[in-house]
């Protein structure tokens, strides 16, 4: 479900539901939350690295869940709304789609293997990106590229993500975690108090945008949930067929 290892002062958090493409259910969300609480509370740990291993980062919400699983401290997936005191680096191999991409957007830095892909396919399921991408994708990517991903459901590769500023470095497949740990150790050389203050200041500077972004996301999610397209999109996914949309009064 979730594996944790410590390398020097870096906590490596590995989602381990590869057979389910690391889709997040309630148990995995709770485990991520606990690991991030450990990161914040243990003075010997300075930086976290969140990964899905060498095959896939995450497909986001397990579609057997009625909504994206959340925790009191971390919000969705135990991480999306967490007010962290220590840096978190995403080490991405394979695809980070939907909520998986939104987990990446919740991290401070991103290292990606060359074959990594990032996308927001929610519209193909009759739902919306409800875990921060409606506003965080615009901040981390250009607004036009963010809208491209949100409206088409298409994905971009690691090279394009790097060129757009989402990814800090692109490395050979299989080496994202090692590179992320090395980056974490560069951070760990510096003052813990200064690092925590930097994270807090950056978070407070974004608070107004985040507050309005979550309000807008809530309204959009409610609108999408009221449409029959949501149930149809999820049913089509499980039945491996093209969806038959009925939204906006279509027959």
Describe the structure in brief.
The protein is an alpha/beta fold.
Provide an overview of this structure.
By secondary structure, the chain is an alpha/beta fold. The protein has one domain (1-173, 192-251): 2-enoyl-CoA Hydratase, Chain A, domain 1. The chain is 42% helix and 17% strand. It is built from eight helices and eleven strands. The chain has helices at 26-41, 99-106, 133-140, 143-152, 158-163, 176-188, 192-225, 229-239, and strands at 2-7, 10-15, 47-51, 70-71, 75-76, 88-92, 95-97, 109-113, 117-119, 155-157, 169-171. The protein has a six-stranded mixed sheet, sandwiched between helices. Strands 7-9-10 form a three-stranded mixed sheet. Helix 2 crosses helix 3. The longest helix is centred in the last third of the chain and has 34 residues, at 192-225. It is globular, with a radius of gyration of 18 Å.
Characteristics:
11 strands; 3-stranded mixed beta sheet; 2-enoyl-CoA Hydratase, Chain A, domain 1; 6-stranded mixed beta sheet; globular
Give average pLDDT, whole number: 96
CATH architecture: Alpha-Beta Complex
- Count the DSSP helices: 8
Shape: globular
Number of strands: 11
Tell me the helix content: 40-55%
- Give, in spatial order, the strands making up the sheet with the most strands: 1-2-3-6-8-11
Euclidean distance between termini CA atoms: 43 Å
CATH topology: 2-enoyl-CoA Hydratase, Chain A, domain 1
The CATH C-level class name: Alpha Beta
Q: Class by helix and strand content?
A: alpha/beta
Stretches with pLDDT under 50, minimum 5 residues: none
Rg, Cα atoms, Å: 18 Å
Looking at this structure, what is the CATH superfamily? 2-enoyl-CoA Hydratase, Chain A, domain 1
Please provide the ordered H/E string of secondary-structure elements: EEHEEEEEHEEHHEHEHHH
Question: How many discrete domains?
Answer: 1
